[in-house]
Amino acid sequence: MEKTQVMVNFSLYGDVFPLDYVTDKLGLQPTHSYNKGDLIPNYSTALYKKETSWDLETGYEESLNTEIQLQRILKSLLNKSSSIIELKNMYSLDCKFSIVIIVEEGETPAFYLSKEFIKFASLIEAEIDIDLYANPYESNY
Q: How many Cβ atoms sit within 10 Å of the Cβ of residue 60?
């Protein structure tokens, strides 16, 4: 039986910027990154990335509380707000938090955005993207 999973991602993205500099400036290793023009793998037709992106994410984890994954990412970034703002201004970057929930067997996780998270997202002017996938299941009700 599949279990409900949650993934949280923070992304700094824009046209073209030096990924190594962002890594050094933030003092964090990205979970993944790519450059504008990089080939997108696993397509029969050649597709290319339309932007450069530096990402920090939890990966998919079994969870019934999104706050666990959000706090893990937030904890890594909290003292980096001035660096994030500086990078955004220097390279005309945008940033966003993506929260992805895959619901299995009707087990929906608690979804909560703490004041701390809301203030931080507002301070760095981050967008928040929420994707919810509810897989079919049979219920006894």
A: 13
